Amino acid sequence: MPTYHYRCKNCNYDFTEQQSFTDDPITVCPKCGEEQVRKVYSAVPIEFKGSGFYRTDGASHSK
Questions:
Q1: Which residues of 3-28 are buried (b: 16+ CB within 10 A; e: fewer)?
Q2: Boundaries of each Putative regulatory protein FmdB zinc ribbon domain copy (predicted)?
Q3: What is the distance between the alpha carbons of residues 42 and 6, in angstroms, rounded to a whole number?
Q4: How many Cα atoms within 13 Å fall on the side-chain side of residue 48?
Q5: 37: enclosing H helix or E strand
Q6: Distance between CA atoms of 60 and 37, rounded to whole angstroms?
Q7: How far is CA 50 from CA 26, 53, 54, in A?
Q8: Are 39 and 5 in contact (CB under 8 A)?
Q9: Which residue of 14, 19, 53, 60 has the fewest CB atoms within a 10 Å radius of its CB?
Q10: d(Cα 19, Cα 40) in Å, to the nearest integer?
């Protein structure tokens, strides 16, 4: 199951929760009880493996 990062806009409480894709997002803060929780989105790191991603891979550069 995926893990989602949440933050409360009221008290700034950060927490993570494992949820199914079909579960509704959490909206109530478990710390302060306010309905101010939003998902926090961040960039996903990309890792290039194998050949073909660099200038020097596989091609002859003679002119």
A1: ebebbbeeeebeeebeeeeeeeebee
A2: 1-42
A3: 11
A4: 5
A5: strand 37-39
A6: 54
A7: 39, 8, 10
A8: yes
A9: 60
A10: 14
- Tokens standing for residue 45: 């790191």
DSSP 4-23: EEEEETTT--EEEEE--TTS
Residue 36 in contact with residue 29, Cβ under 8 Å?
A: yes
21/43 Cα distance (integer angstroms): 19
